[in-house]
From TrEMBL:
<dbReference type="InterPro" id="IPR029069">
    <property type="entry name" value="HotDog_dom_sf"/>
</dbReference>
<keyword id="KW-0378">Hydrolase</keyword>
<protein>
    <submittedName>
        <fullName>Acyl-CoA thioesterase</fullName>
    </submittedName>
</protein>
<dbReference type="InterPro" id="IPR006684">
    <property type="entry name" value="YbgC/YbaW"/>
</dbReference>
<dbReference type="Pfam" id="PF13279">
    <property type="entry name" value="4HBT_2"/>
</dbReference>
Length: 153
């Protein structure tokens, strides 16, 4: 069973012509690009994007990628891509769901795992750097302290 994320964001994408094959079906590799776009928005919202990662002295390569295709996306289709933060203390794990934006039907889901690698010496870190964990937990605390939508503080 998939772990539930502690924070999520969603983006909308309309499938462009250059992402499809001659049958007007999205080429399977482009789903990884859709994951990346959603992951960048998620990391921006969490206050620790790729620029901050590099400035902190780390790169975060993907070491594992899982994709499960249920239905094909097609040219011109409006998609909603959801990215959910699942783990961050020892590695960065994000789950993704690609759905039809109009119907909500799930088309694809996947996950990525990234680990911190020191820019100074190229060594993989066995735990996430404190600067990363602190940024993420600070943002999660700020978000959890906000009143629920439709309520007043």
């Amino acid at each position: 069973m998939r772990a539930k994320g502690v924070y999520a964001t969603e983006i909308d994408i309309v499938v462009p012509f250059f992402d499809v094959d001659s049958m007007e079906v999205v080429w399977h590799g482009h789903y990884v690009k859709y994951f990346e776009v959603a992951r960048c928005v998620l990391l921006d919202e969490l206050g620790h994007n790729y620029v901050r990662m590099k400035d902190a002295g780390y790169v975060w390569p993907i070491i594992d990628l899982q994709v499960r295709y249920a239905r094909a996306a097609r040219f011109g289709q409006a998609l909603r891509v959801r990215a959910e933060l699942v783990e961050w203390q020892n590695r960065l794990k994000i789950h993704y769901t690609v759905s039809d934006a109009a119907t909500g039907e799930r088309l694809t889901r996947g996950s990525t795992v990234q680990v911190a690698v020191s820019l100074a010496n190229g060594e993989m870190q066995l735990v996430s750097p404190a600067v990363f964990v602190d940024d993420i937990e600070r943002q999660l605390a700020a978000v959890s302290s906000l009143p629920a939508p439709g309520t007043h503080a």
